Amino acid sequence: MSxxxxxxxxxxxHEFDTIDGMATxxxxxxxxxxxxxxxxxxxxxDDDDEYGILLISDIxxxxxxxxxxxxxxxxxxxxxxPVISVDPEMDIRYCARLFTRFQLSRAxxxxxxxxxxxxxxxxLVLKGLCRDL
Length: 133
Prior knowledge:
Layout: H1 8-11, E1 18-19, H2 25-32, E2 39-42, E3 52-55, H3 56-64, H4 75-78, H5 92-101, E4 106-111, E5 114-120, H6 121-129
Protein backbone atom coordinates (compact mmCIF):
# COMPACT_ATOMS: atom_id res chain seq x y z
CA MET A 1 0.00 0.00 0.00
CA SER A 2 1.06 3.56 -0.55
CA UNK A 3 1.98 5.88 2.32
CA UNK A 4 -1.65 6.93 2.81
CA UNK A 5 -3.41 5.22 5.69
CA UNK A 6 -6.56 3.43 4.54
CA UNK A 7 -9.24 3.74 7.17
CA UNK A 8 -12.34 1.67 7.85
CA UNK A 9 -14.65 4.45 6.58
CA UNK A 10 -12.90 4.24 3.18
CA UNK A 11 -13.90 0.57 2.70
CA UNK A 12 -17.06 0.01 4.78
CA UNK A 13 -20.53 -0.50 3.36
CA HIS A 14 -22.76 2.45 4.17
CA GLU A 15 -25.96 0.56 3.26
CA PHE A 16 -27.20 -1.87 5.90
CA ASP A 17 -30.49 -2.93 7.40
CA THR A 18 -31.59 -3.24 10.99
CA ILE A 19 -34.10 -5.53 12.64
CA ASP A 20 -35.78 -5.88 16.01
CA GLY A 21 -34.67 -8.80 18.17
CA MET A 22 -38.29 -9.96 18.57
CA ALA A 23 -38.72 -10.41 14.80
CA THR A 24 -38.67 -13.94 13.45
CA UNK A 25 -35.87 -15.46 11.40
CA UNK A 26 -38.37 -15.61 8.50
CA UNK A 27 -38.74 -11.80 8.77
CA UNK A 28 -34.95 -11.46 8.86
CA UNK A 29 -34.48 -13.65 5.77
CA UNK A 30 -37.02 -11.58 3.81
CA UNK A 31 -35.09 -8.46 4.78
CA UNK A 32 -31.72 -10.03 3.90
CA UNK A 33 -32.71 -10.97 0.35
CA UNK A 34 -31.70 -7.58 -1.01
CA UNK A 35 -28.84 -6.76 1.38
CA UNK A 36 -25.29 -6.98 0.06
CA UNK A 37 -23.74 -7.71 3.48
CA UNK A 38 -25.78 -10.84 4.36
CA UNK A 39 -26.15 -9.63 7.92
CA UNK A 40 -28.52 -7.42 9.86
CA UNK A 41 -27.80 -5.08 12.75
CA UNK A 42 -30.14 -5.84 15.65
CA UNK A 43 -31.47 -2.61 17.13
CA UNK A 44 -30.96 -1.60 20.74
CA UNK A 45 -34.09 -1.88 22.86
CA ASP A 46 -33.11 1.21 24.87
CA ASP A 47 -30.13 3.47 25.59
CA ASP A 48 -28.64 0.98 28.07
CA ASP A 49 -28.80 -1.91 25.61
CA GLU A 50 -26.14 -2.96 23.09
CA TYR A 51 -26.33 -3.65 19.37
CA GLY A 52 -26.48 -7.21 18.10
CA ILE A 53 -25.69 -8.74 14.72
CA LEU A 54 -27.42 -11.52 12.83
CA LEU A 55 -25.26 -13.35 10.29
CA ILE A 56 -26.52 -15.63 7.54
CA SER A 57 -24.00 -18.23 8.77
CA ASP A 58 -25.60 -18.17 12.25
CA ILE A 59 -29.00 -18.80 10.67
CA UNK A 60 -27.54 -21.71 8.68
CA UNK A 61 -26.04 -23.30 11.83
CA UNK A 62 -28.74 -22.59 14.40
CA UNK A 63 -31.93 -22.77 12.32
CA UNK A 64 -31.36 -24.70 9.08
CA UNK A 65 -28.75 -27.08 10.55
CA UNK A 66 -31.01 -27.88 13.52
CA UNK A 67 -34.15 -28.22 11.39
CA UNK A 68 -35.94 -25.40 13.22
CA UNK A 69 -38.78 -23.42 11.64
CA UNK A 70 -37.71 -19.88 10.60
CA UNK A 71 -41.20 -18.66 11.49
CA UNK A 72 -40.93 -19.97 15.05
CA UNK A 73 -37.41 -18.77 15.96
CA UNK A 74 -36.82 -15.18 17.04
CA UNK A 75 -33.80 -13.12 16.01
CA UNK A 76 -32.68 -12.75 19.64
CA UNK A 77 -32.26 -16.54 19.88
CA UNK A 78 -29.71 -16.63 17.05
CA UNK A 79 -27.98 -13.22 17.05
CA UNK A 80 -24.60 -12.37 18.55
CA UNK A 81 -24.77 -9.71 21.26
CA PRO A 82 -22.98 -7.64 22.33
CA VAL A 83 -20.91 -7.23 19.19
CA ILE A 84 -17.37 -6.03 18.73
CA SER A 85 -17.61 -2.82 16.75
CA VAL A 86 -14.94 -0.74 15.05
CA ASP A 87 -14.36 2.99 14.73
CA PRO A 88 -14.59 4.50 11.24
CA GLU A 89 -11.15 6.09 11.72
CA MET A 90 -9.40 2.77 12.50
CA ASP A 91 -6.55 1.78 10.17
CA ILE A 92 -7.69 -1.26 8.16
CA ARG A 93 -4.51 -3.14 9.16
CA TYR A 94 -5.57 -2.99 12.81
CA CYS A 95 -9.13 -3.88 11.87
CA ALA A 96 -7.86 -7.01 10.09
CA ARG A 97 -5.84 -7.95 13.19
CA LEU A 98 -8.90 -7.46 15.41
CA PHE A 99 -10.99 -9.65 13.09
CA THR A 100 -8.30 -12.33 13.14
CA ARG A 101 -7.86 -12.25 16.91
CA PHE A 102 -11.59 -12.63 17.58
CA GLN A 103 -12.40 -14.76 14.50
CA LEU A 104 -14.80 -12.18 13.06
CA SER A 105 -15.97 -11.98 9.46
CA ARG A 106 -17.65 -8.59 9.79
CA ALA A 107 -18.48 -5.93 12.35
CA UNK A 108 -20.63 -2.84 12.66
CA UNK A 109 -18.86 0.50 12.35
CA UNK A 110 -19.96 2.72 15.24
CA UNK A 111 -19.48 6.47 15.56
CA UNK A 112 -20.85 8.48 18.49
CA UNK A 113 -22.87 5.48 19.66
CA UNK A 114 -24.65 4.94 16.32
CA UNK A 115 -24.02 2.31 13.64
CA UNK A 116 -22.86 4.10 10.47
CA UNK A 117 -21.85 1.08 8.39
CA UNK A 118 -20.69 -2.53 8.22
CA UNK A 119 -17.17 -3.67 7.39
CA UNK A 120 -16.14 -7.19 6.44
CA UNK A 121 -12.84 -8.97 5.99
CA UNK A 122 -13.65 -9.02 2.25
CA UNK A 123 -14.01 -5.22 2.25
CA LEU A 124 -10.67 -4.84 4.02
CA VAL A 125 -8.89 -6.92 1.40
CA LEU A 126 -10.69 -6.07 -1.84
CA LYS A 127 -11.37 -2.37 -1.20
CA GLY A 128 -8.39 -1.69 1.08
CA LEU A 129 -5.37 -3.85 0.29
CA CYS A 130 -6.17 -4.07 -3.44
CA ARG A 131 -6.97 -0.37 -3.66
CA ASP A 132 -3.78 0.60 -5.50
CA LEU A 133 -3.32 -2.59 -7.52
